[in-house]
Design goal:
Helix 8 packs across helix 10, helix 9 runs antiparallel to helix 10 and helix 9 packs across helix 11. The chain is an alpha/beta fold. About 40% of the residues lie in helices and about 25% in strands. About 35% of the residues are buried. It folds into 2 domains: about 190 residues, Hen1, N-terminal domain (c-terminal autoproteolytic domain of nucleoporin nup98, 2-Layer Sandwich); about 220 residues, Rossmann fold, CATH 3.40.50.
Length: about 475
């Protein structure tokens, strides 16, 4: 089984620092079930590739084992385990690339923390469920997925293809993230493991899957296949909600108050909702998805617009979705109104086919909660994959913050904000989005304008241009 990692980052040979393996040498590591070798088929400044080859000892796998009920010793000897990518590869990755998977690269730590162009190839790969399941697992994580069939025997093409695949994944992301994706999802595609699955595997899944798994649209499938037992999967999903989606009630009130109390004297929240709703009406859209809808406050405002025939809120947190359901009173809503609105669980940084059905997408005070290095993923999801006719984004204007009582220059309005932009920074980012995705943008201020610092909220209205 073979995993090849390639990059065109310049200089590409920095891949050696990320993997902590010198491209000039090969590196052999003994494993309980065989041997792993890391070597570099190519290493130039323009492109560098590193391969992890696993040589499994099939006799060592079965030495001393007895056949269980309904199973013969021959079953242990005649199978694909020594040859096809599986949990053996995941274990080998964890042993040989431990620091890389943890995001550690002392000589190039800044690069380890940066998304770079990557190509990952795994072969031969069991794909229980066919090519479609591979795409469902990897495309939401931002990869382009190309699948190739592995022939039964290259010397006898008439024999046809084997049930195995070669998968090629291309994307722009951190190497540590890419390796943890493979670590979790290769056994999921194989739908099996070479070792006994106990409850300690729950902690392993949480540690390796983390936030990306919590936001993944196929997280139930991943948990069930990875853990092999339904009760383990249920427990893991509950832990994911607690760690990445659940917020204690006291914290919710505190987070809601921090920014709202600051802006309440100027009724900024209401003004934002009115401004975005008015922009939607002017654009003539009929269907809209509010990404990062939270507890559904803006959705309530949108329900007042009769021109909108379909309104959907998408939120990653199960708890926030439950709050939105209560706020909107979905269980008591008249059927004609209930048919107009829905709530979806999903992430704004993972591609989702469900987003392609909307005339408009809104992000109201959302992007400032996204890590800056993940903005390219948000851009890809909204403007490239979903590609709505209209997208509206509002975000705080950091220049205005000094006008709030007790705030200093450069201070952020909320402790969960990853950044806040000046008007020029926001406009530069938005114009870059347009240049890369064929949109045009106009800007509006929301709230009373200060002669020096502008409006408290800045809003960009994107219109898709001609192809």
């Amino acid at each position: 089984m073979l995993l090849t990692i390639s990059t065109t980052h310049t200089p590409a040979t920095d891949l050696g620092f990320l993997l902590r393996k010198n491209p000039a040498n090969s590196h052999a590591i003994d494993l309980p079930f065989g041997k792993a070798v890391v070597f570099y088929p190519e290493a130039t400044d323009e492109r560098c590739s590193a391969s992890l080859m696993i040589d499994v000892d099939p006799i060592a796998l079965v030495r001393g084992r007895r056949g269980s009920r309904g199973e013969t010793l021959l079953d242990h000897y005649v199978n694909d385990r020594p040859y096809a990518a599986s949990s053996f590869l995941s274990v080998a990755m964890a042993r040989t690339l431990r620091d890389t998977m943890a995001g550690k690269a002392p000589e190039r730590q800044e690069l380890a923390d940066t998304a770079i162009p990557l190509e990952l190839v795994v072969t031969p790969l069991p794909c229980r469920g066919g090519d479609e399941i591979a795409r469902k697992l990897f495309e939401p994580l931002g990869y382009r997925v190309d699948m190739g069939h592995v022939p039964l025997d290259p010397n006898f093409p008439d024999w046809g293809d084997s049930p195995y695949r070669t998968i090629r994944l291309t994307g722009h992301l951190k190497l540590s993230d890419a390796l943890t994706h493979l670590y979790v999802l290769i056994p999921v595609l194989d739908n099996g493991k070479h070792y006994w699955v106990g409850d300690d595997e729950i902690e392993k899944l949480i540690a390796k899957g983390g936030e990306w798994l919590q936001a993944h649209p196929e997280r139930d499938l991943v948990a069930n296949r990875y853990l092999r037992r339904r009760r383990y999967a249920v427990q893991a999903l509950q832990l994911l909600d607690e760690k990445f989606g659940h917020i204690e009630n006291d914290d919710i009130e505190e987070e809601g108050d921090q920014e709202e109390i600051l802006e309440r004297p100027i009724r900024l929240n209401e003004q934002r909702y009115e401004a975005v709703a008015a922009a939607l009406v002017r654009s003539g859209v009929q269907t809209v998805c509010d990404l990062g809808c939270g507890e559904g406050k803006f959705l309530s405002r949108l329900m007042q617009e009769k021109a909108l025939s379909r309104i959907v809120g998408m939120e990653v947190s199960t708890v926030e979705i439950e709050k939105a359901e209560r706020r909107l009173k979905l269980d008591r809503m008249p059927p004609t109104q209930r048919a107009r609105i829905d709530l979806l669980r999903g992430s704004l940084v993972y591609e989702d086919d469900r987003l392609s059905d909307f005339d408009a997408i809104t992000l109201v005070e959302v992007i400032e909660h996204v890590d800056a290095e993940r903005l390219h993923a948000l851009e890809r999801v909204v403007f490239h994959a979903a590609s709505p006719n209209v997208a509206i984004i509002s975000t705080p204007n950091i220049e205005y913050n000094t006008t709030f009582e007790g705030m200093e220059s450069g201070q952020l309005r909320h402790h969960d904000h990853r950044f806040e932009w000046t008007r020029k920074e926001f406009q530069d980012w938005a114009q870059g989005v347009c240049d890369r995705n064929r949109y045009i943008v106009t800007f509006e201020g929301v709230g009373e304008e200060h002669p020096e610092f502008g409006c408290p909220t800045q809003m960009a209205v994107f219109q898709r241009g001609a192809e």
